[in-house]
Amino acid sequence: MFDPDEVGIAAKVAFLRRADVYPIPTRTVEVIETHMSWVFLTDSRVYKLKKPVRRDHFELGSVAARHRNCENELDLNRRLAPDVYLGLIPLALTAHDALALGAPGRVVDWLVEMRRLERSQLLDVAIRAGTVDRTRLAALAQLLAEFYRQALRVTLTADAYRARCIAGIDDSVRALTAPRAPLDRARINDIAATLSRHVRIHAADFAARVAAARIVEGHGDLRPEHVCLESRPLVIDCLEFDRDLRIVDVADELAYLALECEHLGAAWVGDGVLAACCALAADAPPARLVEFYKAARALLRAKLCIGHLDDLAPPAHARWIERATAYVALASRHAQALATSASSALAGPPGRPRH
Questions:
Q1: Can you give the pLDDT at residue 91?
Q2: Could you tell me if 273 and 255 are in contact, meaning their C-beta atoms sit under 8 angstroms apart?
Q3: Residue 252 clears pLDDT 60, i.e. is over it
Q4: What is the 8-class DSSP label of residue 122?
Q5: How far is CA 299 from CA 108, 143, 237, 337, in A?
Q6: In whole angstroms, what is the distance from residue 5 CA to residue 64 CA?
Q7: What is the pLDDT of residue 311?
Q8: CB of 21 within 8 A of CB of 101?
Q9: Tens digits of per-residue pLDDT, 35-55?
Q10: This model's pTM is above 0.70
Q11: How is 169-200 classified by DSSP, letter by letter?
């Protein structure tokens, strides 16, 4: 009986490295390995092959599971990039037991096929090059505002939403204060204490977001490298493998983009998109809530950086520790802004006595 998993990942990758196997002729094939996938960039297309991996949030151990994941990725990403995600293409064994891409045969895997984007148009590249087009940022804000307007609303209680926020902070702190993470643990604990206290003191802010139906099934990973500023901007690479990670406050997701732009030295880019998108949606999240989201997201990003220490050899650790340290510094900056605003509120207006 034919077992579709009989062809190993190494054989598949070796085959897909060849320029002569693709249905659309290409001169070269650039290969990128990620945690979850092997990505093959031809002259005009991108092909993504999922790894047969299992994690807490997803299971891709079988061809059937990877096929379902590819279908999910296609459907979800067409929400913000409909003309980029072209379809699925089978990798099959022919009658002569030779691998073939997009040909009849016994399917041994599936690939997501995408239109290749111009790298210079990606937002992170444009930020580094100083070529960000403000007109296209305005168009991006319109795209996102419409996306969030149509996004599925998620029903949960205010208490449940606050609990999610606290759990996320606690999860980040556990990873960042573990023995493997050579970071400033006292600083991280101080940040976490400030954020947890903020959730308790300003519980009404979080309840108001729930009541206003601002909790949606969003993109889940809204970073500059996933934004392409073509004449009609688009956003790629949503978190397709876990719906829970896509459940966000709209202001949280936009604050995440703003934080990542700040990390690249261009805070004005993300803050401008956030402000424009909120204006288009008639949304006015409190400034302190945005600061909270930025700090919490910075802790999360630091946690993800530290997670690379488990997957990489020690020579690569220094780079990820440096990045984690930078994100902790960003988290501290925004947490301090929260603490300062709280102190100012307690002090009251200048010249008035406190009771």
A1: 97
A2: no
A3: yes
A4: B
A5: 39, 28, 21, 15
A6: 10
A7: 75
A8: yes
A9: 889 999 999 999 999 999 887
A10: yes
A11: HHHHHHHHTSTT--S-HHHHHHHHHHHHHHHH
Does residue 247 contact residue 217 with C-beta atoms inside 8 Å?
yes
Q: How far is CA 299 from the centre of its chain?
A: 14
The phi, psi pair for 88, rounded to 5°, reads: -110, 145
Q: Which helix (H) or strand (E) holds 268?
A: helix 267-280
Handedness of CA 61, 67, 71, 74 (dihedral sign): positive
Asked if 284 and 278 touch (Cβ cutoff 8 Å), the reply is: yes
- pLDDT of 7 > 90? The answer is no
Q: Give 145-150's long-range contacts (Cβ < 8 A, gap of 24+).
A: 145/276, 145/277, 145/280, 145/281, 147/79, 147/80, 147/218, 147/219, 148/216, 148/218, 148/250, 148/277, 148/281, 149/281
Tokens of 125: 């590249």
> Please, what sign has the CA dihedral across residues 48, 49, 50, 51?
negative
d(CA 95, CA 110): 18
Question: What residue has token string 């399917």?
Answer: 107
CA angle 10, 304, 286 (to 5 degrees): 140
> Which residue carries 């009986």 as its tokens?
1
Q: How many other C-beta atoms can be found within 10 angstroms of the C-beta atom of residue 125?
A: 17
Instruction: Find, among 304, 328, 302, 295, the residue nearest to 245 by Cα.
Output: 304
Q: Over the chain, what is the mean pLDDT?
A: 93
- Check whether 197 has a pLDDT greater than 50: yes
Residue whose pair of structure tokens reads 């409190």 in the numeric block: 286
Contact 290, 267 (CB under 8 A): no
Residue labelled with tokens 């190494």: 10
Please name each of the domains of the chain with its CATH number: 9-116 (3.30.200), 123-342 (3.90.1200.10)
Q: Residues 6 or more apart from 311 whose CB is under 8 A from it? A: 35
Nearest to 77 by CA among 276, 248, 221: 221
3-class state of residue 36 by DSSP = coil
Number of Cβ within a 10 Å radius of residue 352? 8
